[in-house]
Design brief:
The protein is built from eight helices and eleven strands. The two termini are 27 Å apart. A five-stranded parallel sheet has the order 2-1-3-4-5, with helices on both faces. A four-stranded antiparallel sheet has the order 6-7-8-9, with helices on one face. The radius of gyration is 18 Å and the shape is globular. Helix 6 crosses helix 8. It has 220 residues and is of the alpha/beta class. The protein has two domains: 118 residues, Rossmann fold (3-Layer(aba) Sandwich), CATH 3.40.50; 90 residues, Winged helix-like DNA-binding domain superfamily/Winged helix DNA-binding domain (Arc Repressor Mutant, subunit A, Orthogonal Bundle), CATH 1.10.10. Helix content is 41%, strand content 20%. Keywords: Cytoplasm, DNA-binding, Phosphoprotein, Transcription, Transcription regulation, Two-component regulatory system. InterPro entries: CheY-like_superfamily, OmpR/PhoB-type_DNA-bd, Sig_transdc_resp-reg_C-effctor, Sig_transdc_resp-reg_receiver, WalR-like, WH-like_DNA-bd_sf. Pfam families: Response_reg, Trans_reg_C. This is Transcriptional regulatory protein QseB. Its main location: cytoplasm.
């Protein structure tokens, strides 16, 4: 899951970014509202964690512009503003959830997972395909009931493919899900991780769509 984190507090932002990355997210972090606006225009995200009190452009303005463009990206407001009026204003502006500081990181992670389930039209916490089951809460992956050990990037790639199981994912889209800004990627990075997943989950689990990208194979 690629997340845009919009937080101007350096210490808090660094901690949230580190925590979300440990939870399997790829995180792009910006520190003002104008940078957030541009990031949302130029990149595809699965969720946004948005502070309200931001330099250059307030969080509510960023959110309202996003919704005016018809973008339904799940947005979780994370702010110290805890009055009922602030919560109502945030939710009415188009936020999907509202969490006040101080907060517990596991709760933030759980709320993001819930937002993604709702965005995907499913209430079930696990993702399944062809005998492979992934539980985002525990990050546990099994194949036919047997635990499968995956690296962090293998897990992230599998999660992306499962969440888009009915779509072909291009190499560029998969790279977007694997790497934050500034991280270098090798010319065949995606292919390497696809190869590793096929060895662990079955040669037919991921199929190559020539000239387009990758997609999960048809269930047996």
């Amino acid at each position: 899951m690629r997340v845009l984190l919009v937080e101007d507090d350096a210490l808090l932002g660094d901690g949230v970014r580190a925590g979300l990355k440990l939870g399997g997210c790829t995180v792009d972090w910006v520190r003002d509202g104008e940078a957030a606006r541009l990031a949302l225009l130029d990149h595809a995200y699965q969720a946004c964690v948005l502070d309200l009190g931001l330099p250059k452009r307030g969080g509510l303005a960023v959110l309202k512009e996003l919704r005016e463009r018809g973008n339904q990206l799940p947005v979780l407001i994370l702010t110290a503003r805890d009055s009922s009026a602030d919560k109502i204003a945030g939710l009415d502006a188009g936020a999907d959830d509202y969490l006040t500081k101080p907060f517990d990181l596991p709760e933030l992670q759980a709320r993001l997972r819930a937002l993604l389930r709702r965005a995907g039209g499913t209430a079930t916490p696990t993702l399944e395909h062809a005998g492979v089951v992934l539980d985002p809460a525990s990050k546990r992956v099994t194949r036919d009931g047997e635990a499968v050990s995956l690296s962090a990037r293998e897990y992230t790639l599998l999660l992306d493919l499962l969440r888009h199981r009915n779509h072909i994912r291009t190499r560029a889209q998969l790279e977007e899900s694997l790497y934050s800004w500034g991280e270098e990627t090798g010319s065949n990075t995606v292919e390497v991780y696809i190869h590793h997943l096929r060895k662990k989950l079955g040669a037919d689990f991921i199929r190559t769509v020539r000239g387009l990208g990758y997609q999960l194979g048809d269930p047996a």
